[in-house]
Amino acid sequence: xxxxxxxxxxxxxxxxxxxxxxxxxxxxxxGKPIKQFTSxxxxxxxxxxxxxxxxxxxxxxxxxxxxKHPGALAISRGLGKDATIIFNKIGHSNRAKNIMKxxxxxxxxx
Length: 110
Fold this sequence. Notes:
The protein has a domain of 75 residues: Cytochrome b5-like heme/steroid binding domain (Flavocytochrome B2, Chain A, domain 1, Roll). Strands 1-5-4-3-2 form a five-stranded mixed beta sheet. The chain is an alpha+beta fold.
């Protein structure tokens, strides 16, 4: 099947390890339990100086992002409540969804 020694597959004694980190779509848990927040707790964070919102039953502290957001007024309408419909109506890109990951602080207590 192989015409010369050069064509033979190389056998590795150990698997090759990638130097690139694996990207995950899930927030990093780091062994700690995921915090849970009630709707009442989230509702208290409804100001631009202290703003949380819910997206798909996950809680995000977007306080530091509000001024960076191109639609600061739009994001302000979702503070302290479930902003899933608002977020989806606008039609955010996958990039926007990836940016959100760093603001994840926990889940909604159902």
